[in-house]
Amino acid sequence: MLKIKFCTIPVADQDRALKFYTEKLGCEVLTDQPFGNGMRWIEVAWPQRETAFVLFTPPGMEDRVGGFSMASIVTDDIEKTYHEFTSRGVEFIEPPKPQPWGIQAIFKDSEGNSFVMTQEQ
């Protein structure tokens, strides 16, 4: 295996999530297309990154929206990223703080999903 292409982020409102991920987190839209039965397949990613987020909730899995994400986001400067995100209105549950394994912060997206952000060691 070479890489992870995407991970799915369950969302209740794709338009609201798309706005959050592009305007507040700085992601770019890789694809936004119909996916049958009125659904859309939306992939976003940070510029020049290999792994994308898919903003989509499969039917019957709506209860997964607003939970703790199993994806962890890594940045090379957590303080800088924290300040950039907060200035754009991203809600942090936990600001950057040292842990035995490094520095981490926890933020929420527009759908209530929470993500751990750590600093590259």
Q: What does this 3D model show about the protein?
A:
- The chain has a single domain (6-119), classed as 2,3-Dihydroxybiphenyl 1,2-Dioxygenase, domain 1.
- The protein has helices spanning 14-24, 78-87, and strands spanning 6-9, 28-34, 40-45, 52-55, 68-75, 91-99, 102-108, 114-119.
- The chain starts with 5 loop residues before the first strand and ends with a strand.
- It is built from 2 helices and 8 strands, in the order βαββββαβββ.
- Strands 1-4-3-2 form a 4-stranded mixed beta sheet, covered by helices on one side.
- The mean pLDDT is 94.
- A hairpin with a 6-residue loop joins β3 and β4.
- By secondary structure, it is of the alpha/beta class.
